[in-house]
């Protein structure tokens, strides 16, 4: 790999999916803090939990942006690292139905990715690049065609780190890999990023966390405060090491329970088949992933695939009448409005309101693992607003752009690489 000097990099723009990115002149670390709803940001700053981020008010940038729809992990991490919408990159959820084969597919690799990534292009141009993600399911997409260091907290020993003097990822971070369902799964990824900065000095790092904490704890809870304070302190260390740090989220998070703490659930497939006949429709929940204990595969957005001819308008009207349903859109409309790939959408899409989740059949969703915790989830429009923060001041052009328009979370690499003073 050829490593360019800062002066050479400053003259070079890398084209990725129709957008241009300056090669980093100093280390740049982009963090996707999974499930980081703006309520955590606002409460954390107000309560003194996030002093590093709070300092960005005067020494950097703090704002919000829109995540892509559905507001799921795979969709948005892919948008962030490609800089484009799902209509271009093709990953429209964690889970989808292949209309041609009838196969239901869990997205755990890059076979369905339809474009390259910023990370891959930068690494090919000679930028030392690294990716560490909490969830292994993301790694093959995030590190697609990337030359550099890439591993997950779930499988930290998959990367060869001997050139850095470490036998494994666990050896580098200094502790054993965390449990899949733990706050430390995320902190391990951030600590790995710090260790890489201290040793390998990558010029571009992407760190993606898990939303374990946000699914279980509300803003202001002791557990969420402790976790977000730990994230904030690690951001401080990355800045101390000379990095520009930019942070956004893949989606927000909201409570989905009634006044008595019971989950607000619309079992849409049951309702449609009861109304229009057994076997009429299949409902696909794109939030479904290997971390199903978090949410029971229940979220704020589902796709409806018709299995036999029926009156689709009548079905959509009925779906819209169900309590907790906020919006119902046909395939063409949902693709146009939210920039989704038509060949991977259902016949129509159903969105629940911020306080409700929508699922398929009651038997498909196991909420027993929630225990004493209330159901908190994402996927819909209520979780589309996310934080968008940068550790250094923006240039005048980028300040004006942020003030005048709607930012997207997938603008974060543009701002971090092109938009800071």
Structural commentary:
The chain has 421 residues and is α/β, with parallel strands linked by helices. It has 2 domains: 13-253 and 383-419, 3-Layer(aba) Sandwich (Alkaline Phosphatase, subunit A), CATH 3.40.720.10; 265-375, Gyrase A, domain 2 (2-Layer Sandwich). The protein is 32% helix and 19% strand. It is built from 17 helices and 19 strands. The chain has helices spanning 6-10, 38-46, 51-54, 56-59, 73-82, 86-89, 118-124, 139-142, 169-173, 184-199, 212-216, 222-240, 268-276, 312-321, 331-338, 396-404, 412-418; strands at residues 13-16, 19-22, 28-32, 61-66, 95-97, 104-106, 129-133, 148-152, 204-208, 244-248, 254-255, 265-267, 281-284, 301-306, 325-330, 348-352, 357-359, 376-377, 385-390. It has a 7-stranded mixed sheet, sandwiched between helices. Strand 1 and strand 2 form a beta hairpin. The longest helix is centred in the middle third of the chain and has 19 residues, at 222-240. The model is unreliable at 1-5 (pLDDT under 50).
Short overview:
This protein has 421 residues and is of the alpha/beta class. Helix content is 32%, strand content 19%.
Q: Could you name the key traits of this structure?
A:
single chain; 421 residues; alpha/beta; Alkaline Phosphatase, subunit A; Gyrase A, domain 2; 2 domains; 7-stranded mixed β-sheet; 17 helices; 19 strands; disordered N terminus; Alkaline_phosphatase_core_sf; phosphonoacetate hydrolase activity; hydrolase
């Amino acid at each position: 790999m050829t490593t360019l000097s800062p002066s050479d990099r400053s003259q070079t723009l890398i084209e990725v999916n129709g957008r241009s990115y300056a090669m980093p002149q100093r280390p740049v670390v982009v963090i996707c803090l999974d499930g980081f709803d703006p309520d955590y940001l606002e409460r954390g700053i107000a309560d003194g939990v996030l002093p590093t981020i709070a300092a960005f008010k005067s020494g950097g940038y703090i704002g919000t942006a829109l995540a892509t729809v559905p507001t799921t992990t795979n969709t948005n991490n892919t948008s962030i690292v490609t800089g484009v919408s799902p209509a271009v990159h093709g990953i429209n959820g964690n889970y989808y139905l292949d209309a041609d084969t009838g196969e239901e597919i869990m997205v755990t690799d890059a076979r369905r990715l339809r474009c390259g990534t910023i990370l891959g292009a930068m690494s090919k141009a000679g930028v030392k690049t690294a990716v560490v993600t909490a969830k292994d399911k993301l790694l093959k997409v995030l590190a697609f065609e990337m030359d550099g260091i890439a591993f997950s907290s779930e499988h930290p020993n998959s990367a060869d780190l001997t050139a850095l003097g470490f036998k494994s990822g666990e050896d580098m971070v200094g502790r054993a890999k965390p449990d899949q369902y733990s706050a430390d799964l995320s902190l391990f990824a951030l600590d790995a990023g710090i260790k890489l900065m201290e040793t390998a000095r990558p010029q571009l790092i992407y760190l993606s966390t898990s939303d374990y904490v946000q699914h279980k704890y509300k803003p202001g809870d002791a557990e969420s405060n402790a976790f977000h304070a730990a994230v904030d302190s690690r951001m401080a260390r990355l800045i101390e090491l000379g990095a520009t740090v930019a942070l956004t989220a893949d989606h927000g998070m909201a409570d989905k329970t009634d006044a008595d703490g019971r989950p607000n659930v619309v079992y849409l497939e049951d309702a449609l088949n009861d109304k229009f006949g057994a076997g009429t429709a299949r409902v696909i929940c794109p939030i479904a992933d290997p971390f199903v204990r978090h949410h029971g595969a229940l979220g704020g957005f589902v796709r409806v695939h018709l299995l036999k001819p029926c009156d689709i308008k009548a079905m959509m009207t009925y779906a819209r009448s169900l309590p907790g349903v906020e919006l119902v859109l046909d395939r063409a409309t949902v693709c146009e409005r939210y920039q989704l790939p038509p060949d991977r959408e259902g016949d129509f899409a159903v969105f629940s309101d911020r306080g409700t989740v929508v699922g398929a059949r009651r038997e498909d969703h196991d909420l027993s693992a929630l225990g004493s915790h209330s159901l908190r989830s994402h996927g819909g429009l209520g979780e589309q607003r996310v934080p968008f923060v940068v550790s250094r001041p923006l240039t005048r052009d980028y300040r004006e752009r942020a003030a005048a328009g709607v930012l997207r979370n997938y603008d974060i690499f543009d701002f971090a690489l092109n938009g800071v003073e």
